[in-house]
Structures are given as structure tokens and as C-alpha cells.
Amino acid sequence: MERAEGPENIRTRVFGERILYDNEWVRLTLVDIEPPGGERFEHHVVRLARVVAAAVVNDADEVLMMWRHRFAVDQWAWELPGGIADLNEAPAVTAAREFEEETGWRATGPMRHLVSFQPMPGMVDTPHEVWTAEGAEKVSEPSDAEEAAIIEWVPLANIPGMVKRGEIAGSGPLVGLLTLLMERQGKG
Q: Would you call 128 helix, strand, or coil by DSSP?
């Protein structure tokens, strides 16, 4: 059951917000709130830009992914190509651009919206979108070797096992790939 709004009597009231730190990548704020039936207090919120990723599938039912090291968590894992959307850029354009820049492959089919979500809505405001396309052609080398790491076509059939083994990092690839698999099984 989809609900756009909930009852006002259980909605957290927001009285204002002040910025503690701000740059082009991250904004840390204190939000003056009062939860239902609770005391008023200031709650930290991290606000990040919109993130867009691309799950491009080839004729062999494989998705192009990148094996990367993420220093913040000191972990190697598979990811989808993606990045921060430019302010005035349509998300489908961002998905196609990031896919090509990070992999050297260009999607040949049109980008189609797959899923939108917030990965940590209790403390972090960072809208995420995953787009998908069918088909790709190699057009160049990745524009940034650090971004690309290792690029491989991974069979969609391998994704559930990879998820169970913790080989896919980040909510974007997890949510996007699992949504894609559900859609292909007629469950989405």
C-alpha cells in the first residue's frame, strides 16, 4: 500500500534549521524538531546532493559493474557507475554521462528510470536514483582511472549470491540491482 502522507498527529514538527558546515559536497545542519509526544530538540542532519547510477544490461543478460576500493570503509566491492547529478541536468542524462565517463561504454538503448529512494532517511537526506538501459558499445577508455578501477560485465544471475556474500557495496547498487531483478521476474 503506497502512502504519500500520514496522519498529522504522528508527524514530527520542524521549527527551523541551521547550517553547521557547508560545501559543494556535504551540508551538516541542526534541525529544530519536536517528535510526536516528545520533547523539542536539535537533530543532526547530513544533506548530500542527488546521486544517479546506471544499471546497463547487455544481450548476454550481464550488467556492467566496477570493482572499487572505498577508503572511507576500507572495502573492495562491486558498484554501478554513477555520481552526483549536476543541478540543471536531467537524471537520465546524468546516468548516461556517468556510465560513459566511468566505464568508456555508451548505453545504446534509452535510459529508463528504475527506482528512486533515500538510503538513510532518519539522518541523511541524499536522494538516489537508478536508471537502466539495454545495450552498450565501447567508445573510449574511462575518463578517470581512479573512478573506474576494474570494469566487468557481470551476469545478472550472479547478483543474488554476490549480495549474500557482501560483494556489492552501497545502497545504490543493492537497491538498483535487486529492483532490476524483481522487475525481470515480473515482481516489480
A: strand
Length in residues, the chain: 188
Q: Using one digit for the tens of pLDDT, what is the confidence trace for 118-168? A: 999 999 999 999 999 999 999 988 887 666 679 999 999 999 999 999 999
Q: Is 41 helix (H, G, I), strand (E, B) or coil?
A: strand
Ordered by start, the domain boundaries in the chain are: 8-48, 51-119+126-184
Q: Which listed CATH number (3.40.30.10, 3.40.50.300, 3.40.50.360, 3.90.79.10) goes with 51-119+126-184? A: 3.90.79.10
Check: pTM over 0.85? Answer yes or no: yes
Nearest by Cα to 99 from 52, 61, 46: 52
* Distance between CA atoms of residues 121 and 112, nearest Å: 25
Give the CA radius of gyration of the chain. Answer: 19
